[in-house]
Amino acid sequence: MKVLEDTGGIDRQSTDQEKIDTVTRRITEHGNYLRKRYPILQHQDALGAGVMVFSLVGMAVTGGLYIKGFIPGWMCIFINALLTSFIHEIEHDLIHRLYFRKQPLAHNAMMFFCWLARPGMPSPWLRRSLHFHHHKESGTDSDVEAWITTSGSPWGMLRLLKLMDGFVFGFLNAVFAPGWRQKVRLLGKIIRLNTPFGLLYWGCWYVFLGYHLYVWFGSIVGEEVNSSATTLAVMEVVNSVVVILIAPNLIRQFCLFFISSNMHYYGDVAPRNALQQTQVMNPWWLWPFQMFCFNFGSTHSIHHFVVRDPFYLRQMTAPYAHKVMAQAGVRFNDFGTYKRANRFSMDHSQTRSRG
C-alpha cells in the first residue's frame, strides 16, 4: 500500500512547474499501482467498449419500454440522461485516443456511435483539435472550448440561456456579431458544426416546443386545437424522440456545462499552468448536477495533470489525487468563481467579464 498511503509533502517554495511535475508523477504512479492491484484495469479497450455497449443497449431498452408503455416518460429521461453521461466520458477518452489507438476501425466506430447518442454536439472528430488546444491553452482567451461552455461569462439570464440551449447561443452570437461578413461566417460555422445530426436534433426539439406551446396557448385562450391525423402521427414520433434522446441530452449537457464552466478558471490564467486551470468542486449539494456528468467537478482536475487515465480510473484515483493536488495548491470549492465570472484572481478590481 506504499503508493496509496505516501502522498509525502510538496515544498511550497517549489516553482509551479516543479509542483505540476510532482503532482503528475505521483498520480501517474498511483494509477500504475491500481492497474497492478486490479488486473482488469489493464483491459482498457474492452472496458471502454463494454461501457459503451451497455449504455447504448440500455438507452434502446429504456426507449422501448417507454414506447410500449411499461415505464413513464420521466423515468426514461432520467435513466437515459445517466447513460448519456457515460457515453460522454467514453467520447472524451476516445478524443484522447485511450481506446483502440492502434485499431482505427474500432476506434472510429466508437466515435460514430458516441456522436449518434449525443447528436446535439458537433462531431468528435471536429472537436478533437479544439479539445487538444483546450489542454494546451486552458483558461486563456484562445480557449474556445471553455468559452463555448460559458466560462468567463457573467452570471445572468444570457448565461443561463447559453447553458440550456447551445444552438440558440451560437445563433445569437452570429446575429449580434459586428458586420455582415462576420455574421455570415459564424452562421455558416454553426450549420457546418451541426450537420447533419445536430440540425435534426435541434429541429426536432423546436418542433416539439413549438407544437406544444401552440396547443397550450390555444387552451389558454379557449381555442381548441384540432390537429390532422398526419400532424398527430408526426408529433407522436417527435414526442418519443424527445423523451428517449433529446431531453436526456439536454439535462446531461446543462449539468456538464454548469459544472465544467465553474470548475475551470478563465481569462486570467497563467499559460499552461495546471495549478490555475481548474479547481475541485465536490460539495454534497452539487450531486444533482454531478450525477448527470459522472462526478465531473470532482475528477476532471485530475485529467488536467494526467491525460492518459480513462474516466473510471480517475474516479478510483480521486481520494489520493485530491490529497496531492491540495498540497500543491490546487483550489477546492472556490465558490467565489460565480461572482468573479470564473477569473482565477480573487482581487475583484482585476477581474473583467466577457459576455
UniProtKB/TrEMBL annotation:
Record has Transmembrane helix as a keyword: yes
One Pfam family of this chain: FA_desaturase
Domain Fatty acid desaturase, first and last residues per copy: 71-334
GO BP annotations, alphabetical order: lipid metabolic process
Annotated keywords: Membrane, Transmembrane, Transmembrane helix
InterPro entries membership: FA_desaturase_dom
Transmembrane feature ranges: 46-65, 160-178, 199-217, 237-259
Protein name as it appears in the record: Fatty acid desaturase
UniProt source species: Pseudomonas proteolytica
